[in-house]
């Protein structure tokens, strides 16, 4: 086997870097007949110059760079110069003018961007940009004009995706940030939870009217205004949960509305907040009155969601008169209120109250209906269910949640035993041409023939809302979700609506289509629970950042939000 010998290492007797000038240095390591240009780290090479641009600034930069090169290694750098050989002597530069960009190409942003007849923005081209700068199939005159605007931005177009949303609650400087968790970390959590135990049932539910399953766009039905009362109090104000907490049946108490938001947190875009109160070893997850839990969002996950009008700058008087007013019925706030109104009335309308089959009463009456109430109750059943969040058999961590069902399907089994229960929800169409529509097709022309395209668009634009509805149905143990498709009778009128269709789907199947992982949701709930259990007794607020995919846990004073409630109570007393 051959051996390896290290070559000899010669030290520079002059004490510097590079080849030695000493005569004692070995002859074979001297550089012979090779020019050497001295270099120091302090030498400046000058600025980079654009030799193709003959403007004054760049000519000066080129001259400075050339002078720097001449100063560097002067006298010896010429030894490295390159000389043309005979074969290259015939080469000459023909044109050194800067190239002028041609107008009308698809890559040239500006006024001429739509005139070149390219597929990026030509009138009648195969591919064009849709409303709000989105790309999509088609062409036509409108898309060519919209492409011009993508290069030459319209009024406040640059603000559409850069507008900062306000938080759902005012963050006080006295609040202390305890934890900050990004959504990508929440998406990696997993916890498998077994089937729940049913504790108690309350309320009365009516049968679902199956005639709405046969409604089409050609036989639409008007959406009626039905006067009914439906209660959805927060966790701490629920008398049943207070009784269960007194018996220590669980350590965490909440409602399906609050729990679904937490389990679907990575899909949320709009801000929200959950008030968490720790009393002893118990946690209560509450909502605020008038908060984001009492309304339904519209196109929250769309690429260009509905926007509220930007308030004018009080320091700029000119802006008060020049800012165009947004159509009030298509703003984010107006659409949310409209969607809430539609969901309530569609749920009240699609049950049979005065015809067989008879309503079903659960084991106990509605716990929130006072004896002096005179208005009729809506069809609603409350199921208090117990979920075990423990990882090991010895760990005692149970969660009690109040769930809701809206009706039952006749002939599908005994509703008192959890058979044939239904949750009823509604999707709404406002104006396919309005800003924030999310590229939704016209339901009146596509719902019967291309229902898959309509459903796919809604799953994209309302991913968070549909995921929360699915989780609520699974928590309640419902067999079906009834989803209605409600549209405006006139796109310019948000007070009159019609029912175009209704469909039913199993919650587990819908969860698979939406890619909703219940194990991930339970992992998020367990993580938040562990964080709060490590804290001392007190009040905390879990806040979704309004503009970032982040949630933060704050420690707040015990009287937080109590002052606002007291003020509301005083105002109500004054009105009486």
TrEMBL record:
Subunit field text: Component of the eukaryotic translation initiation factor 3 (eIF-3) complex.
Q: Which residues form a coiled coil?
A: none
Organism this protein belongs to:
Coprinellus micaceus
- Annotated segments matching region Disordered: 1-23, 104-155, 299-323
Q: What is the lineage of its organism?
A: Eukaryota, Fungi, Dikarya, Basidiomycota, Agaricomycotina
Q: Which HAMAP family match?
A: eIF3d
**Biological process (GO) annotations?**
cap-dependent translational initiation; formation of cytoplasmic translation initiation complex
Name this protein carries in UniProt:
Eukaryotic translation initiation factor 3 subunit D
GO CC annotation terms, alphabetical: eukaryotic 43S preinitiation complex; eukaryotic 48S preinitiation complex; eukaryotic translation initiation factor 3 complex
